[in-house]
Fold Adenosine kinase.
Amino acid sequence: MADYDVLTIGNAIVDIISRTDDAFLEREAIQKGGMTLIDTARAEHLYGAMGPAIETSGGSAGNTVAGLVSLGGTGAYFGKVANDQLGDIFKHDIRSLGVHFATTPLEGHPPTARSMILVTPDGERSMNTYLGACVELGPEDIDPAIVAAAKVTYFEGYLWDPPRAKQAIVEAAGIAHANGREVAMTLSDSFCVHRYRDEFLELMRSGTVDIVFANESEAIALYETETLEPALDLLAADVKRFAVVTRSEKGCIVIDGDKRIAVAATPVADVVDTTGAGDLFASGFLRGYTMGLDHEKSARLGVAAAGHIIGQVGPRPQTPLDRLPEIAALLAG
């Protein structure tokens, strides 16, 4: 039996979350709804200009493994922080959840990564990310024993920004496949897809990646189509195992060969903050998948987890998800 349901690999980032309005985004020339990489000077400027904030460990893959353990799963995480105050915050937060995290911290410059996440009244989040120590994640940070012990190794597309992380991902995928495990990735956002479209397609077509998570705009960007349907057909042909495309309030579609499984979204009375919705969808789906549930039941867990997280501020569950009656019922099969 595997020691871990899921190993996630990602940019270890401390999230700094603040509420704002569209006028602030326009004034600061911030792309609404996307993730923009920024340098040290820009990070310092935005931190000084934004309002009161909540600081918590984050990063897409970190959020996913946090959600997974909140659903009763077992998880591990690879990601690079510096030996500094924010690095200590990240380590404490993720370990306190029960996630195995033992990546050696970086000594000296650059400091731990941070992302200024600006949430507008419509719940949309706009991320401005300083990668810092994240760019130092490399092959030496891949622990073969942890990869071999995980049913699924899952990484975020954002890792394609730091160059050495690419080598680490390819190495981890080779170890996973040599041990009969599977590799999953999330496309992260459409801006990321535009930057690395050819490389993402090669990861799928070469069999380096078995499972793909994307949202509607990312799938369309990947295949440069006008609508979703032709993108789904192309995705089905390229992915080794299966893919899942989320569609916000429309739910999701699982693509497995010529099968299309549509699952409706969980109704949410008050959308507070969409930060982490896709990350928590992956948590729920992967929890169901590694339990042996079918795609439909796994997708229902995904939409339930995502629906819960957008009703609160921040991407980490504030209540154990497996204690929520509607989610507990889904986990019970």
Summary: The chain has one domain: 4-332. Residues 4-332 form a domain with the UDP-N-acetylmuramoyl-L-alanine:D-glutamate ligase fold (CATH 3.40.1190.20).
